[in-house]
Design a protein that fits this description.
This protein is about 75% helix and about 0% strand. It is mainly alpha-helical. Helix 1 packs across helix 2 and helix 6 crosses helix 7. The radius of gyration is 21 Å and the shape is elongated. The protein starts with 10 loop residues before the first helix and ends in a 5-residue tail after the last helix. This is TetR/AcrR family transcriptional regulator. It comes from Streptomyces scopuliridis.
């Protein structure tokens, strides 16, 4: 009688294949989001990655889940930047610099600013934990600037997060490329922040 194969023999290459498929999907999604925006066709992403749409959904059940995976490292970087800026001797300038980074990030892909705002409002969104962590880090920067008497006391972290992403959205809607929308978003945010300072 021929011995049966070990139960885990076929599963090992499948796990490796699944990992490679996931990595290909993420790489392809980044390119597709840069080309089409966050509404890039998921079927096209799967096709370019060389997998079926079912494989994409097994890795990323929703568009928001795919977007979260693509943005994970950058959202972590925004959080880390806020933590580092807590040591800046000019609290309002530190807050503005961080908000500029938030706005520039939101211009990375067309449609991203709206997705990030939804990530804060919708607790069920896969983006919610990462966006919430970014918002919490920003709240610490804001509190420090308010404690120093440099930013109006009635401003909230949610106000500023909405402001940064709304500025990014406005810049996106009035320009034709990220090379234009990024600098415009930074300029609009600087102008807006002047109205938040105490004088």
């Amino acid at each position: 009688m021929t011995p049966s194969p070990a139960p885990d023999t076929p599963s090992r290459p499948q796990r490796a294949d699944a990992r490679r498929n996931g990595e290909r999907l993420l790489t392809t999604a980044r390119d597709a989001f840069a080309e089409y925006g966050t509404d890039a066709p998921l079927e096209e992403i799967a096709r370019r990655a060389g997998v079926g749409i079912g494989t994409l959904y097994r890795h990323f059940p929703t568009r928001q889940a795919l977007l979260q995976a693509v943005l994970h490292d950058r959202l972590e970087a925004l959080h880390s930047e806020a933590v580092l800026l807590l040591d800046n001797p000019a609290p309002a300038d530190a807050l503005l610099g961080w908000l500029r980074s938030v706005a520039l990030h939101a211009t990375r892909y067309r449609g991203l600013a709206a997705a990030l705002l939804l990530g804060v409002r919708d607790e069920d969104s896969p983006l919610s934990p990462s966006c919430g962590a970014v918002l919490t880090a920003g709240a610490e920067l804001l509190h420090r600037a308010q404690q120093a008497g440099q930013i109006r006391p009635d401003v909230t972290a949610a106000d500023l997060y909405t402001l940064a992403n709304s500025v990014a959205w406005a810049a996106e809607e009035t320009t034709t490329s990220r090379s234009e929308s990024g600098p415009l978003a930074a300029r609009l945010l600087t102008l807006t922040m002047e109205g938040l300072r105490t004088h």
